[in-house]
Amino acid sequence: MSDIDRDRELEARLTRAPREADPGRDLWPSLAEAIGAAPRPSAGPPSRRLVPRLPLQIAAALALFAGGVVVGQRWGDSAPHSGAGGPIERGEYPLATAAEIQRAGSEYVSALSRLDESAGAFEREQGVDAALSTLQGAAWELARLRPDDPQAGRLLYTVSEARNDGEEPTVSF
Amino acid sequence: MGERQVRLQDPRAEFETLYREHHRRVYAIALRFARDADRAEEIVQDAFVRAWRSLPSFNGDSRLSTWIHSVAVNAALDGVRSRSRREARIDREVDLERYAAEVGRAMPEADLDLERAIAGLPDGAREIVILHYIEGYPCAEIAERLGIVEGTVKSQLHRARKLLKEALA
Q1: For B17-40, how does the pLDDT look when each residue is reduced to its tens digit (9 = 90+)?
Q2: Cα distance between residue B50 and residue B86, in whole Å
Q3: Residue A12 in contact with partner chain B when CB distance is under 8 A
Q4: Of residues B85 and B1, which shows the higher confidence score?
């Protein structure tokens, strides 16, 4: 066998080498523990190319708005509440409002995600219009809550501009 | 292997799915670089912790599997180098038979004579052989990753082929 042939045979054996291996035990539990201690992925500071500012602002604004609606409705109910599934009493849990807002915002984002995956063009347009309308409301609420915050003012301006660029809304709140 | 998008609504659940899809590939890289199962597990964990931390910066320009693979290679290279520095001080040798046993268990279809021969190569040549012939990296990219010139990569490959042929003769 010539040296060239031996080179070819060696390269063939090398390229046939498996590229996956079984660790033999589940490494996920220790990894989950490690990433629990690691800083959680977040969107900031965002890559402008891939994480446009507007959607982030919109999501944050909507989360605040929708969560505020939910919490407001529950707190506004004068009936007494109890049980694990009941509304959270003011002061009972200091982060309750933030948690509710985050949950409501996640539901909103999930709904938009499902719309994008499965909806037809008409349904998608209605959904987008509903989303923008809700966002505009959220932006108003943010501007009301933080009247001196220029970011809140810019957000309201941006969302209002975005909504006014479209057709007349077919769904409104 | 199908590609998937990472949505950060439930990052840990999504990340576990990502881990389940890619950990065998990462373990293979780590095991060949480290030649030690325990150390390979550490490299896998390090690679995925790095991936977790830098997931928001994944810009979608490359396939997710390519990105994870790249993170794993960097973790493996860093792990091997930091270990080499420590071991140089205590003159510890790798147990090639123990390594071959782990390869036989973890990769039943592996050519054990070849794996032993690769594992017996000097560090620089071994890394380059793994990256080029097994992981498919071109010489120019290996040079960039290792901070050496492409000619050095090619000469290391030439030397490695000679050593491997001798070991397998």
Answers
A1: 889 999 999 999 999 999 999 999
A2: 22
A3: no
A4: B85
Does the pTM surpass 0.80? The reply is no
Among A22, A25, A51, A113, most B C-beta atoms within 10 A, so best to mutate, is A22
Contacts of B8 in chain A (CB under 8 A): 41, 43
Place of tokens 């949505």: B7
Question: Is the preceding peptide bond at A45 cis, omega within 30 degrees of 0?
Answer: yes
Q: Does residue A83 have a pLDDT over 70?
A: no
Residues in chain B: 169
Name the residue among A28, A44, A49 with its Cβ closest to that of B59.
Answer: A49
Distance set, CA B104 to CA A22, A78, B21, B54, B135 (Å): 10, 69, 22, 33, 19
- Higher-pLDDT residue of A48 and A90 is A90
Looking at A16-149, list the stretches that DSSP marks H as alpha helix, in order from N- to C-terminal side: 28-37, 53-76, 96-118, 121-145
Assess A29–B contact: CB distance below 8 Å, yes or no. no
Nearest Cα residue in chain A from B27: A21
SS3 B133: helix
How far apart are the two ends of chain B, measured CA to CA in Å? 36
Q: What is the pLDDT of residues A11-40, one digit of tens each?
A: 999 999 999 999 999 999 999 998 886 665
